[in-house]
Amino acid sequence: MDGFGVGEDEFEVDGRPVRLLSGALHYFRVHEEQWGHRLAMLRAMGLNCVETYVPWNLHEPRPGVFRDVAALGRFLDAAHAAGLWAIVRPGPYICAEWENGGLPHWLTGPLGARARTRDGEYLAHVERWFHRLLREVVPRQHGGADGGPVIMVQVENEYGSYGSDQVYLRRLADLLRGEGVRVPLFTSDGPEDHMLTGGSLPGVLATANFGSAARSGFGTLRAHRPRGPLMCMEFWCGWFDHWGADHVVRDADDAAAALREILECGASVNLYMAHGGTNFAGWAGANRGGALHDGPLEPDVTSYDYDAPIDEYGRPTAKFWRFREVLAPYASGPLPEPPPPLPVLGSPTTAALPEWAPLGTVLECLGTPESEHAVPPTFEELDVDRGLVRYALTVPGPRGPYPLRVRGLRDLAVVYVDGERAGVLTEDEPVLESPVAGHARVELWVESLGRVNYGPRSGESKGICGGVLHERQYLHGVRARGLRLDAFDVASAVRQVPVAGAGEGRPGLYRGTVEVAGPGDATLALPGWTRGFVWVNGFNLGRYWSRGPQRSLYVPGPVLREGGNEVWVLELEGAAPEAAVTLS
Hints:
Layout: E1 4-6, E2 11-13, E3 16-18, E4 21-25, H1 35-45, E5 49-53, H2 56-59, H3 70-81, E6 85-89, H4 105-111, H5 120-133, E7 150-154, H6 166-178, E8 185-189, H7 193-199, E9 205-210, H8 214-224, E10 231-236, H9 252-264, E11 268-275, E12 286-288, E13 297-299, H10 318-327, E14 349-352, E15 355-358, H11 359-366, E16 371-373, E17 387-402, E18 404-410, E19 412-417, E20 420-426, E21 436-447, E22 463-470, E23 473-474, E24 478-484, H12 491-495, E25 508-516, E26 522-525, E27 531-536, E28 539-545, E29 552-555, E30 563-571, E31 580-583
Parallel strand pairs: 4-5, 4-11, 5-6, 6-7, 7-8, 8-9, 9-10, 10-11
Antiparallel strand pairs: 1-2, 2-3, 12-13, 14-31, 15-25, 16-24, 17-21, 17-24, 18-22, 19-20, 19-21, 22-23, 25-30, 26-29, 26-31, 27-28, 27-30
Helix pairs in contact: 9-10
Family: Belongs to the glycosyl hydrolase 35 family.
Domain Beta-galactosidase galactose-binding: 507-565
Domain Glycoside hydrolase 35 catalytic: 11-327
């Protein structure tokens, strides 16, 4: 039999048994010019396959408006050229510590809990998306007329951690088949009874996700599926970081021992992550704390290094070499050596950003039209995916000073009263420190720190989702205006934002030029800045935040050029008066 298949107890390629040694590498977290290098690193580690998610919200920013879906096809071609098979995980939900788990804000906003179910309106959007997306997958299936790397396609993602709608899962599987997917389908869930019963599908290969205790995990999987190949679809060999928490590291020897146990079980494996990359452009998601993932917001940092065997800069780590030792005996021949390292920046340079425009001016030039509402609209109602919203309202007067409180704040608000900064509010601290007397003008600049990507609160709205209260009285009549991050994608528009002199650390958009000799991979440090976003030559590096643990941003070498490089910093809270940026 030609092609890739699922045998009684093992995978088969062209009728021969094969063990999948795969690694997760997300094309959307790596600069396209560096895909080839990262894929070669996977081969050198001993892998024969690459796995990637597909983020729906990245590719369909508005209903029926598609943006570079062909990137997936180009990545699959690059994987094929590198001699790797490919596993595609199209969702529609992906988790992946990605904004909203990959679901578009325009979908989850109006649908709420109907998303990820058999709901007809939801599935109609999925059908339109899959019809476009699968054009990049179907012609690239292994064993097809043109040949290709794709050997498996996933149905949903860890659905048993969220729901139990078997009708929905079957509809997705039928949709994939109807669009021409003929390679094996699979599901992946945690090795727990409720997850496997909720997330697996009769007649579809079930796989398990875990970071250790392989024999126990596979034992649970076997109790549900006595036959079929064993595979750990996500071997969590590292972990991700949250803003304000400690950096997470997993010992290389411990991770290698866990990998060896998986292989000793006769199983296939997908390293999650083999190379994590970066949450460029503010696409990092967020989690909810607590055992039930229903607690405080825990936003994810920009780096998705994941303590992976190949680090954010594409360099081999100690874990890489330990994994290579474990994987080498399972290879069909000697492993290739790692490719030469990519160029790095020739010399460090520090530069001030002398041009500045206040946030209000930036909003006037790049924001959505202002609209008036009885109560504060959510980000979703204003069609803001990533970015911030300015809510303006009036405290009537005359009246005495009372506490000002925001109900349902998601996630962070810098508050101004009569033009003067009055404080910063969060979901956990929603009351201004000083009472407000009327008559007063109040502005709340509310920022999304990333939509929840996992658990029962995934898909929740952003912005002011309850209301603004003065004492116990709701304040009505709210003017709202959004600033989407993709408004900065058009460099010519950003350059037209009028400069208002030196910023001296005030919130706003800072601009300047950094001279570079010998461009290559670099690190951007922002000492003295508080929180915001950075663009280099129009490329959005992502969010920075002084609370850590991430202290600098990765700059891919292809972003830089010899000579002058334009840098924009959107500071949202305030910086040191002499704050500069350093490339090194």
